[in-house]
Design goal:
The chain is an alpha/beta fold. It has one domain. Helix content is 15%, strand content 53%. The strands form two sheets. It has a 16-stranded mixed β-sheet that branches. Strands 14-15 form a two-stranded antiparallel sheet. The radius of gyration is 21 Å and the shape is elongated.
Length: 250
């Protein structure tokens, strides 16, 4: 059962209001791995002076009230906890969100973000950043300045696409309404509703708003119907062979 967004917002508000005045402001730049399970105002993550990446993981019980920023080639994992303010990735930093709550997510420059769980209330992807989403939830996603978004699972409430960004949706049984249409694998129109099924059969719908004609929104049937059919037939044949061997030896 999906938890309503209003409950997440209420929880985040209570946590933020309860933060002590002396919450930590910390910088990690030692090339090591750090678990964050305390209460922090700001956290910054950098490479070492020798260009070795630093890694942090926000786990259940950890709270960042203002900003978590990841720079250079360093990385962060959000597996639990709460980022009540901004979570930003710069340069070629990487981020994985597998759980927890993030109020605002900002992928910038050439950074990469992988989302497989958790809730992101708002995100804006800039420059040539890449967002891969296979699970979790984003309430509102904006894409700008050539950023790329690949979605194969999860739930997105609305996408607002600008500035030649590229959005690819991987699934099947795509349907458009309210002003959108499909031409081959291209989604046409300025605004409307797009729906379909992810590869695991989960149905989904999202609102699409395209701000300029240079933005590409496309659909990819993954896997292709022929490939999927061969996979099913191959699996059935293997099962029949195993059953035949079992009968012969009994």
């Amino acid at each position: 059962m999906k938890v309503p967004r209003t409950i997440y917002l209420a929880i985040a508000f209570v946590i933020f209001a309860a933060l002590p005045a002396m919450a930590e402001v910390v910088t990690f730049e030692d090339g090591a791995y750090h678990q964050l399970n305390g209460i922090y105002t700001e956290v910054a993550v950098y490479d070492t002076a020798e260009n070795q990446p630093t890694r942090v993981e926000l786990i259940t019980g950890g709270v960042v009230s203002n900003a978590l920023t990841v720079w250079q080639t360093s990385s962060a994992v959000i597996s639990g906890g709460t980022v009540a303010g901004d979570l930003a990735t710069y340069d070629t930093a990487s981020l994985a969100i597998t759980g927890g709550y993030v109020a605002r997510l900002w992928p910038v420059h050439y950074s990469t973000v992988d989302i497989s769980g958790g809730l992101v209330l708002y995100s804006m992807a800039f420059h040539s950043s890449v967002v891969d989403m296979s699970g979790g939830e984003i309430s509102f996603l904006e894409t700008k300045q050539g950023s790329r978004v690949n979605v194969s699972g999860g739930d997105i409430g609305e996408i607002c696409a600008w500035d030649s960004s590229i959005i690819t949706l991987h699934g099947y049984d795509f349907v458009t309404t309210d002003g959108l249409s499909l031409s081959g694998d291209q989604v046409l129109g300025r605004s409307g509703t797009l729906g379909g099924k992810w590869l695991d059969g989960t149905p989904w719908t999202m609102r699409i708003l395209r701000r300029d004609v240079g933005t590409t929104i496309s659909t990819t049937i993954s896997p292709e119907p022929t490939t999927l059919g061969l996979f099913v037939l191959g699996g059935s044949a293997m099962l029949m062979r195993r059953q035949g061997k079992a009968s012969a030896t009994s």
